[in-house]
Amino acid sequence: MPDDSKHEGGVIYHIPGQDYFDIRGLRRHAGAFSLWALGVGAVISGDFSGWNLGFAVGGWGGMFIGTILITVMYLGLTYSIAEMSPALPHTGGAYSFARTAFGPWGGFITGVAENIEYVLTPAVVVFFIGSYLTGIFGTPLGFQPAWWLIGYIVFVGLNVRGVELSFNVTVIVTLIALAILAFFFVSAVPFMDFGKYAMNIGVDPTTGTAVELPDGGGPFLPFGVYGVLASMPFAVWLFLAIEQLPLAAEESVDPRRDMPRGIMLGMFTLIATGFLVLIINPAIPSGAFKLGSSGEPILDGFRAIYGTGWAKILALFAVAGLIASFHAIIFAFGRQIYSLSRAGYFPHFLSVTHGAHKTPNTALIAGSLVGFLVMLAVWFTQGGEQAGSFIGGVLLNMAVFGAMFSYLLQGLTFIQLRRAFPNIERPYRSPFGVPGAVLTVVIALVTIFFQLTDPLYQKGVIGVAIWYALAIAYFAAHGRKTLVYSPEEEFAVKQREGAASIDRDLA
Question: Where can this protein be found (predicted)?
């Protein structure tokens, strides 16, 4: 492959011929509307499952305040990436930004954090898909791995078939998911009794665990400030993966114009749906307490409103929300693995694209295999049908921890780019600026600290640490010697050389 090489900053770059990039091409297609759909679609499953587990540890009030704090963090993050993505319009996303700001190791560490998030998040989502389909079709619990396999085969296949089909499917399932949520909200309003159902969580004075208050009227913060902190990782599920949009930069028709629009329109859409589901879903029978352990809260809501028969039919449509996220995040991990591979951080063969469709088929298959095998390993080591809480809890926490760490690094990246690279052309500038990035860093640190100290999350943190240890060992021993001047790397090297030249002139 290479015809030249260059040593720089503890890494070795290989300068490939054009044939290297010819078999790694992507195709431009997406406009602002498609990017909005991709961003909303990637996250919308969080309105259907996962977020509600925060009621068990924070009650409704803790979850509400935790969601406000997480919303502030995501606004700081999305405004930051809305500035960075058109300034550095490469498919590497967060890795690309950090590579320019902090060098190869900074780019790699940020890239691995996103890799953990994007490979494990669809695994958790397909677990919830399996839970919904098990409830709808009445299949045995032991059949769940088959639902997971079917999900991966179908939606990896759709992603491989071309970027046009990927975005068309994303738009359709995202609009269906939003329509189902709107129908649920309208249907639920006549059944709402907020005080009785949403506030039906108390605390057992002996065990300190949540107990159901049949008549409601429970305290706003049954677990106090601890409950707010405990619920924050679950509130993340209402917005997790909106930050994936920069990964579509090289498949966007005009990323400098459309990327900021798509990111922020998507974020404001998700704020609206997130707070509506947080207020309405627990305010109808059977209330917040039972939702705190539910794998299908919207299905539970439809059961309360329409009864079991109609609920199953409506829930079949509701699965569209989970499918939208599953499909969109498969798109994301394909591009994320592709970009790190094209630049040499991951093995080069993973970035070879499909000859006809120009999609990163090798990366898509590799990411799906890792996610599926992790789920199977958990399934068989945790006792088969008893593994659901581990997959829905620990793998969710691993994905959230990877996300939180990447948000911390992206906030620091934004600050460093503003400080050290002020001359980079910025077609869009964050109205929150550096203070918004600082808020992102602070709230991410609080969430990470809680995950590190709370036994409930430590298994997930340990899993992330193992993933990181293996990745760093690979990069230190091999990957740093095989880097390539991909678009992200070439841009970063030129910017850092330019900044160094300015510093020398000023000196």
Answer: Membrane
Whats the size of the chain, residue-wise? 507
Q: What is the DSSP string of 200-259?
A: -EEE-TTT--EEE-TT----S-TTHHHHHHHHHHHHGGGTTTGGGGGGGGGGBS-HHHHH
Strands (E), 238-331: none
C-alpha dihedral, 220 to 225 to 226 to 227, nearest 10°: 30
Tell me which amino acid residue 366 is. Answer: A
List, in order, residues 6 or more apart from 499 with CB less than 8 Å away: 420, 421, 423
266-317: per-residue pLDDT in tens?
Answer: 999 999 999 999 999 999 998 999 999 887 888 889 889 998 778 777 777 7
Nearest to 388 by CA among 50, 127, 51: 127
Q: Which two tokens stand for residue 156?
A: 């990896």
* 212 neighbors 59 (Cβ within 8 angstroms): no
The rounded distance, in Å, linking the Cα atoms of 406 and 425 is 24
- For 37-83, how does the pLDDT look when each residue is reduced to its tens digit (9 = 90+)? 999 999 998 898 889 989 999 999 999 999 999 999 999 999 999 99
The CATH superfamily of 2-506 is Amino acid/polyamine transporter I (1.20.1740.10)
Backbone dihedral angles phi then psi of residue 90, each to the nearest 5 degrees? -120, 155
- The Cα–Cα gap between 249 and 346 comes to 20
Report strand pairing: 483-484 vs 11-16. Answer: parallel
